[in-house]
Amino acid sequence: MKTILYKANERGTADYGWLKPNYYFSFSNYHNPSKVHFGVLRVLNDDFIMGGGAFPTHPHDNMEIVTIPLTGALQHKDNTGGEGIIKAGDIQIMSAGSGIQHSESNASATESVTLFQIWLFPKIKNITPRYDQRTFDVTDRLNKWQVVVSPKEEDNALWINQDARFALTNLSAGNTIEYKNGFDGNGVFLVVINGSVEIDGNTLNKRDALGISETNQFTIKATADTELLAIEIPMTI
Predict the structure, then answer these.
(1) Which of 54, 94, 150, 166 is spaced 20 to 30 A from 122 at the CA atom?
(2) Rounded-to-integer distance, Cα 191 and Cα 30, Å
(3) Closest among 225, 193, 223, 89 to 148, alpha carbons compared
């Protein structure tokens, strides 16, 4: 089992007034040659968007883009007709494919939004762009994994153009949980949304992350009430 620790206080940062992002990987004006990607995981931004803040219409192509709101509500519009508002408990996915134009904005003029935006390199390039979102019951992730993104039909999750799985759990303090890969040989990028855990001798606190590879399963122990995101991805682009 190989691990790479990503401490929250070592992430890249920026301050655009209305937008305050934290970057786990090189993005925009932040460049760290040792943190460009983890397998096919290219971007994980932890964003704070003030009330009224908005990303104007901009293009993407050949990227699988997953948005996970943590607080507040985010509005999305794109040139395929995709449109919706997502909030905590919702997951959004967009396959940029052969090319898409979209905008994102805080759905409130006064309340802030916090979210994870995650980009994965696709399995197949230049597919027809697509958009989807779903509300998940957060009670179904108490001390167990709730798969929210997966190409496997049996996972009953949002479909993604990659051999990747996103899973969430809310662990009670003192509990342990095992993660087992859905795809043999994949790595897992594990993010502590809130709380603290121990994994293979590593202690992770709020917003810390651990890149895990060369194993198909591992055990996590919660040392406090904890929210976790597991992003399972192929390690070869």
Answers:
(1) 54
(2) 20
(3) 89
CATH topology of domain 10-123: Jelly Rolls (2.60.120)
139 SS3 class: helix
Q: Tens digits of per-residue pLDDT, 216-233?
A: 999 999 999 999 999 999
* CATH class (in words) of the domain with range 138-233: mainly beta
One-character DSSP codes across 9-67: GGSEE---SSEEEEESS-BTTB--TT-S-BTTEEEEEEEEE-TT-EEEEEEE-S-EEEE
158-194 pLDDT, tens digit per residue, is 999 999 999 999 999 999 999 999 999 999 999 999 9
Integer angstrom CA distances of residue 58 from 25, 61, 64, 86 = 21, 11, 15, 19
Cα separation, 218 vs 175, in Å, equals 14
Q: Which of 93, 60, 69, 40 is nearest to 231 (CA)?
A: 40
219 touches 197 (CB < 8 A): no
Same fold, 10-123 and 138-233: yes
Task: Output the pTM of the full model.
Answer: 0.97
Give the integer Cα–Cα distance in Å for 27 and 150: 25
Distance (Å, whole) CA 2 – CA 8: 20
Which of 97, 49, 50, 47 shows the shortest CA–CA distance to 67?
47
- Which residues does 4 contact at the CB level (< 8 Å), separation at least 6? 38, 210, 211
